[in-house]
Structures are given as C-alpha cells and as structure tokens.
C-alpha cells in the first residue's frame, strides 16, 4: 500500500513543469483535472482549482551532499538560502519555493539511513 498527498493549485501547468523539469519527478497518472507525480517513493498530486493550497512542505531526499548542491545550483533562482548542515536532524538541506509559493525542502541525510 502507499499514499498520495494532493494540493489544489491555480497554476497547474507551471507547477507540474517545475516538479518534472527542475526536480526530476515523473508523471505517474493523469486524471481529468489532477496530475499525480512520482519522485522515487513519493507520490504527490496537483489538482486545478480556483484556490491554491500552499501549506506544508514537500521534501525531496537525495543520496548525498553533492546532489543537494547540484539541485541547489538548478534551483538558485527560487532557493531561499544556501545549503547547510542541520545538526538537530543530521541532514544537509536548503529550502526553496515552487511557482505557487509552496515550500520545497531538498535534503540528504549525513549518515546512512534505509530509505
């Protein structure tokens, strides 16, 4: 079994392009007014609506710091900060914004974990 997190969006096409073109997500399923994306084991969808859900954080976990740095370089125009070590959670991370203003976190665990 698995689950899907859905968000309403007023900018469906721009949001889908952001996650597929810039973060490497794949379209998993198209529905009449919703697109479900997949990034490794993360399923998340965006549904065209007359309002935007911009609460919560979509977190993308990568294998290592170098990949986080590479993603940061690709997202420099929407990154809120440079990548940094967060000792409390034992991660290397940064935050960015998608076209809806939704928070996107990019991180790697500093010590191996089973994903």
UniProtKB/TrEMBL annotation:
CDD domains: VOC (cd06587). InterPro entries: Glyas_Bleomycin-R_OHBP_Dase. It comes from the Archaea. SUPFAM superfamilies: Glyoxalase/Bleomycin resistance protein/Dihydroxybiphenyl dioxygenase. This is VOC family protein. It comes from Salinirubrum litoreum.
